[in-house]
Design brief:
- The chain contains eight helices and ten strands.
- Helix 1 crosses helix 2 and helix 6 packs across helix 7.
- The protein has a seven-stranded mixed sheet with strand order 6-7-5-4-8-9-10, with helices on both faces. A three-stranded antiparallel sheet has the order 1-3-2.
- By secondary structure, the chain is of the alpha/beta class.
Length: about 250
């Protein structure tokens, strides 16, 4: 998707800009102890040029002050609200094997505005057991529930986002069941062969493909590295490393 073609439901913001917003937010949270940050500092930390940064932030209206920069707290609030919305957004993890368990163990969800609202599987030895997860008030545990309970879980939690971590052979059927239950956004970690029903946004995360890309650049070091803004249209992206900003 081109920089000038905002995706449906994006509020008119191009997809490439949306992909950069979490990186801006990460840097801003790293320096939240200071009151302001300049466009030059923020752009350098993220790995984009200042003109691109200013264009990206212009979608939020007039947010900077010439000669001063951006109010860190205000910009964190603006970007967070546009990305996730107010409060803590619930999501589900479907498939509690090694991959799903690892995803559930990530402790950074609360800071990014998300909370695990449900853990789902079909294995008799997993359903009914508890797994420790992070929350805004500290760790807690959730009961792993059966996939057959999916409609009730969605109704109870209001979750419309899911991480798909099931075996590849079960991916398409599980995706269809998620869509039927009211889940409209799915992050797919398991299979290239699944197709999203109409009205469902599906993003693929293929770790093998990302490793192949990295291996290519190792084998061909003279090849220009992809720009930090590159996205492949399938939910994966290539990014320059972020620099630390001095507080």
């Amino acid at each position: 998707m081109s920089e000038g073609a905002p995706p449906p439901g994006s509020g008119g913001i191009p997809e490439a800009t949306i992909a950069r917003l979490p990186r801006y937010l990460q840097v801003l949270r790293d320096v939240r102890g200071r009151s302001t940050i300049s466009s030059q500092q923020l752009a350098e930390a993220v790995g984009v040029n200042p003109a691109q940064l200013r264009k990206d932030l212009s979608y939020f209206g007039s947010v900077g002050t010439r000669g001063v920069g951006y109010d860190v707290g205000r910009l964190i609030a603006l970007i967070s609200d546009h990305l996730v919305g107010p409060g803590s957004r619930p999501f589900l993890i479907v498939g509690m094997g090694k991959l799903g368990t690892a995803m559930a163990g990530f402790t950074g969800y609360p800071e990014r505005g998300f909370r695990i609202a449900g853990l789902i599987d079909v294995a008799p030895d997993l359903v009914g057991t508890r797994l420790r997860v992070a929350t805004t008030i500290g760790p807690t545990s959730l009961v792993i529930r059966h996939l057959d309970d999916l409609p009730a879980i969605v109704a109870e939690t209001g979750a419309s986002i899911a991480l798909l971590c099931v075996p590849p052979r079960a991916a398409q059927d599980t995706l269809q069941r998620l869509a039927a239950a009211g889940v409209t956004s799915i992050l797919n970690f398991v299979s290239d062969g699944v197709h999203a029903p109409e009205g469902v946004r599906l993003r693929d995360v293929d770790l093998g493909r990302e490793l192949q890309i990295l291996a290519y650049y190792q084998q061909h070091p003279d090849t220009a590295a992809p720009h930090a803004d590159t996205t492949d249209g399938q939910g994966t992206s290539t990014q320059k490393s972020q620099k630390k900003v001095s507080v």
